[in-house]
Structures are given as structure tokens and as C-alpha cells.
């Protein structure tokens, strides 16, 4: 399974509720998954060109029509986009 994130899964104490990419990562780990983390770089609030044209963001956009991360790609090809959706998926699909 692959988890596409912006820059990483590090804590962000100044962001209320935590960083969405970290929240998704931690939920997957709590559920017993070991996702391969792929840094897509870029930033959702910036236009795709010229900022979000990294290989990771391009893959995410091709898969969903949107370049926003986090995005989970399961081993069986299921695509889940968005932190809340990934957290919910992880809670429903523990290892």
C-alpha cells in the first residue's frame, strides 16, 4: 500500500487537529498497516503549474482528478483520497 503525502508525516503542533498527512499515516499504523510513504511535495493551495508538477502529485491527479494529498492506494488498487476518508478506511480495515 502507498500513502501519498505532501512533505512528510511529522508532527505539526501549530496546526489545530494535526497535519492531515500525519493523521492519515497514524491511523493506518494504528490499524496495523505499514504504508510506503511517498512524498508528493507541492502544496494544495498553490496552482498545479508550476508548483504541483512533481511525479507524486501528477500520479495523484491522474488517479483522482485532483492533486490533493493525502491519498491512499491499497495493494488491490483501491484509491482513498483525503485524511478523514483514510482514517475511516483504516478504522474499518484493521490488519
Structure characteristics:
4-stranded mixed beta sheet, 95 residues, alpha+beta
Per DSSP E runs of 2 or more residues, the count of β-strands stands at 4
Helix content: 25-40%
Order of helices and strands: EHEHHEEH
Protein structure class: alpha+beta
User: What does the radius of gyration come to?
Assistant: 13 Å
Give the biggest beta sheet.
4 strands, mixed
* Widest sheet, order of strands: 2-1-3-4
Q: Span between N and C termini?
A: 13 Å
The fraction of residues assigned to DSSP E strands is 5-15%
The number of helical runs is: 4
Low-confidence stretches: none
Averaged pLDDT:
89
Estimate the global geometry from the Cα principal axes.
globular
Describe this structure in words.
The chain is of the alpha+beta class. Helices cover 37% and strands 15% of the residues. It has helices spanning 20-30, 48-51, 55-64, 83-92, and strands spanning 2-5, 36-39, 71-73, 79-81. Strands 2-1-3-4 form a 4-stranded mixed beta sheet, with helices on both faces. Helix 1 (20-30) packs parallel to helix 4 (83-92). The protein is globular and about 40 Å long. The relative contact order is 0.23.
SSE inventory with pairings:
Blueprint: E1 2-5, H1 20-30, E2 36-39, H2 48-51, H3 55-64, E3 71-73, E4 79-81, H4 83-92
Parallel strand pairs: 1-2
Antiparallel strand pairs: 1-3, 3-4
Structure at a glance:
With 95 residues, the chain is an alpha+beta fold.
Amino acid at each position: 500500500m502507498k500513502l501519498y503525502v505532501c512533505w512528510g508525516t511529522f508532527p505539526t503542533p501549530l496546526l489545530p487537529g494535526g497535519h492531515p498527512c500525519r493523521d492519515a499515516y497514524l491511523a493506518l499504523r494504528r490499524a496495523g498497516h505499514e504504508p510506503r510513504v511517498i512524498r508528493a511535495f507541492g502544496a494544495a493551495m498553490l496552482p498545479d503549474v508550476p508548483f504541483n508538477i512533481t511525479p507524486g502529485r501528477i500520479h495523484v491527479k491522474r488517479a483522482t482528478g485532483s492533486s490533493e494529498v493525502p491519498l491512499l492506494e491499497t495493494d488491490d488498487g483501491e484509491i482513498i483520497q483525503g485524511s478523514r476518508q483514510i482514517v475511516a478506511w483504516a478504522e474499518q480495515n484493521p490488519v
